[in-house]
């Protein structure tokens, strides 16, 4: 497990905060005002955004607070590389573990018709691939070698990090740039710039040369951003009331205000409303985490909680007026979501803290996908008549799958088209890497990171990886 070189006093303070979060403790709850954006005014919307299903919480004037030491997505020990400190690697850098592909469940119902055409382009979608523009290799490069370095480079050592990250033959890694704080989510804007949200409440832009500027600030722990296709509207998910029990999350448009409020929040640091993706139907989709580890009441009794109607779900929302519906249920902490070329939605899900395998699901609309029906001594059995779908892929325990993207561009070889790529965030063995999900078991695609949390595809067809621990943004391109 990785820890920065700290003074003993600071180390004990951070460790105390971490264990308070892991046990469901809370810092002083605060209500967070709607942030102000440091941007030019966005276009007028035709209707005032309202949420017809969930009551809207009014912002207050309380000061913004951010958690100093975040709880990781699965309440396990977090990576601890920071902006100015070298870190020591763990066994995760050298140990390969097996992950499993579970046969996909056949959907029993489909909310979006996908028989005739592929989904419309979203912010992660570029031109359809053509055989002529794709230089497929002689054979699939397959697994990449493990990292052998015993030390992390300095966070500003570009060549050191580029040499550390391993990718398949024919691919190239570039240290694009670095932002302050801890990146949580990324998307490309219609202006071609990369937009990066950080845990500390800011959104930055980064150009193709790695130059960084502040775009907006004043948010509380944003963990999902996405541009609405065909517009310059940037949707963002973050916390409104930062309280472990009784908290609240929201979705808003930068510079325009709240679209959806009243979302359940905030069991631990990274349990709230997270990844946003716009579907082939033009609607917005967002993953919302559960309010407990495995559905228990957080009073020490171990009794089963009464589920909030919107928790542990993928929600579908109208991007104009915030009208909500539940698309699918049963996700303990769905950190990120992505649509594939066939119109199916995929989600990463962090498993309970007792240590079952981590999960990626092909989302089946209307189905139950797990939470809170787990198999442990203190877990709960599903009620009669409730069928729980198994995950499509599983990973080692406590790997903390976070960012997910689907490759729908044409720069990579043809056999990469429509593959899923998942970032494994934690410092546990078997994580700290990006994995490729294609046919068969998951494969290592890029290894050697400190804490990769986000992965997206750019307009140029390259893949971009955001590292939470270091603030570094990496670019992975195919050069043949």
Helix percent reads under 10%
Strand proportion, as a percent range, falls in: 25-35%
CATH class: Mainly Beta
Rg over CA atoms: 21 Å
Summarize this entry quickly.
This protein is mainly beta and 480 residues long.
Q: Would you write up a description of this structure?
A:
It is a single chain. Residues 1-98 and 103-142 have low confidence and may be disordered. The chain has helices at residues 8-22, 158-164, and strands at 100-101, 171-178, 183-188, 194-198, 203-206, 212-216, 224-227, 234-241, 247-253, 257-265, 273-278, 284-288, 313-317, 324-329, 334-339, 345-349, 358-362, 393-395, 401-406, 420-424, 433-437, 443-447, 452-457, 463-467, 472-478. The chain has 2 helices and 25 strands. The chain has a single domain, classed as TolB, C-terminal domain (Neuraminidase). The protein is globular.
Q: How are the elements arranged and paired?
A:
Elements: H1 8-22, E1 100-101, H2 158-164, E2 171-178, E3 183-188, E4 194-198, E5 203-206, E6 212-216, E7 224-227, E8 234-241, E9 247-253, E10 257-265, E11 273-278, E12 284-288, E13 313-317, E14 324-329, E15 334-339, E16 345-349, E17 358-362, E18 393-395, E19 401-406, E20 420-424, E21 433-437, E22 443-447, E23 452-457, E24 463-467, E25 472-478
Antiparallel strand pairs: 1-18, 2-25, 3-4, 4-5, 5-6, 7-8, 8-9, 9-10, 11-12, 12-13, 13-14, 15-16, 16-17, 17-18, 19-20, 20-21, 21-22, 23-24, 24-25
